[in-house]
Each structure stands twice: as C-alpha cells, then as structure tokens.
Write a structure and sequence with these properties.
The chain is an all-alpha fold. The chain is built from nine helices and no strands. The protein has one domain.
Length: 257
C-alpha cells in the first residue's frame, strides 16, 4: 500500500512540475531567449525523422476505418456517405491523436531520456555554472520545435489516411475514388483544417513539455532515466486524450442541460 501511495504522490508532483514548466516556457518565450540552432536541430527530430511511422500508421488506420465504416453503410445503401463518415472521424479526431501518440513515443520519450541523463550526470548543474538557463537551452527549443512540426505531421497523416481510405474503398467495396473524395469534401469544412492545425500545435506542446518535465525531475541513475521516459509517454497519452475531449466539446459540441 505504501509504494502505491508513493507512486500517486510522485505523479501529482510531476503534474504540478509540468504545469510550472509550461508557465516558465511561456515566460522565457516572451522574453525572446531562444537558441535558433537548437530549434532547427529538434525540428529535424520531430519532423523528418518521425515521418515514416506517422505515414505508415495513418495509412493503415485510414484503411481499417474505411473497411469498418463502409461495411455498415453499404448495407444500408449509403455508399455516398462513406467518405463523409471517414472525414468526420478520421480527419477531426484520429489523425491528430495518432500523430501525437506516435511522437509521444518517439520524440517525447527521447526528450525525457536525454534530459534525464543530463540531470543524473550533473550536466544541468554545469549549465547553471556556465550561467546558461536550462529552460532556454534545453526546454524552449524542444517545445518550439514540436509546436511547429506537429501541425505539419498531422496534415501529412491526414492526407495519408485519406489515401488509405480511398484505396480500401475502391479495392474492397468498389467505391470510386471520385465518389469517396467528393463525400469527404461535402462533409468537411474549411474550418476543420484550422482545427486540425490547432490540435497539432497543442498536442505538440503537450509532448514536449511532458517529456522535458519528466527529464528535469529525474533522480537516481540509469534505471530512473528509463522509468522517466516510460512515464513521460504514458502521461503524455493521458493528457492528449483529456485535452482532446475538452477541445471536442469546445469546438464541435454545444450540449444543452
């Protein structure tokens, strides 16, 4: 029972640390303290280096969702609505969440491990001795890079998912690509693209801040570094789904009580 309480207390402390770090990031960003070379370096990590798994997962997710959706809609003679149903679910929700989840596992865990290793080897203390703020040098470039690259990665995932949906619809249910794409165009609105970009920006911030927060609060040795990387991924996934829930309520739903 005691270890469980200790774990829960640790998670609560880390959540407050992440919130505090978010405030520090905004403050340092307003002060204009940025290392542009570091930003470009981390943009490569959060972008081109991670594009392959994002495209692969999005393509297969688009095909899977189309197969499941088309099977039910074709039964009711609503073939023309397959692309629309795909657009409402995949484009608005699945593409941003899948992209953020992949980057949480690949990029967020790397941030936690890198900064955690620097923490346990006292490299961050050395930065203080050199009068270099770790927030400016380590955290802010990573947050900016993720916030910039995540929207682009989400758009790539969106297009790859549509390609996968078109392929599955034409191969398994003889739905013409023109019919599928026309249904997508009719159901989606121009504002949906803005919402996708907004979600990508917010999810990118969550990935970077959670990863950096767990890295900065790492104590111990190599074992704790690995645990921080794992917990950073889990925490990021939870925060992404919670944030997506509130964004969906705010942007798509207007419940009446």
């Amino acid at each position: 029972m005691q270890p469980q309480k200790k774990f829960e207390q640790s998670c609560i402390v880390r959540c407050f640390a992440a919130i505090l770090l978010c405030g520090q990031v905004w403050l340092h960003l307003l002060q204009g303290k940025t290392y542009y070379r570091k930003i470009l370096q981390h943009m490569v990590t959060a972008g081109p280096t991670s594009i392959s798994p994002v495209l692969l997962v999005s393509g297969f997710a688009g095909m899977i969702f189309t197969i499941q959706t088309a099977r039910e809609l074709v039964r009711f003679g609503a073939v023309n609505a397959v692309g629309g149903a795909f657009a409402l679910a995949f484009c608005r929700e699945l593409a941003p969440i899948l992209t953020a989840s992949i980057l949480a596992g690949q990029v967020g865990s790397a941030y936690a491990a890198e900064i955690g290793a620097m923490r346990v080897t006292e490299q961050i203390d050395a930065l203080y001795m050199l009068k270099t703020d770790p927030i400016d040098y380590l955290v802010l470039p990573r947050v900016i890079a993720c916030c910039l690259m995540m929207p682009f990665m989400t758009v790539f995932a969106l297009f790859m998912g549509i390609i996968g949906g078109v392929f599955a619809g034409s191969q398994f249910y003889q739905i013409l690509p023109e019919t599928f794409l026309e249904s997508v165009r009719n159901f989606l609105e121009p504002s949906d693209l803005f919402i996708v970009l907004l979600k990508g920006f917010i999810f990118g911030a969550l990935v970077a801040i959670n990863g950096c927060s767990w890295g900065l609060t790492t104590k111990g040795g190599a074992k704790e570094v690995g645990e921080s990387a794992t917990k950073a991924v889990v925490t990021t996934w939870i925060s992404i789904f919670i944030m997506d829930f509130f964004l969906s309520l705010l942007l798509f739903e207007h419940p009446t009580f």
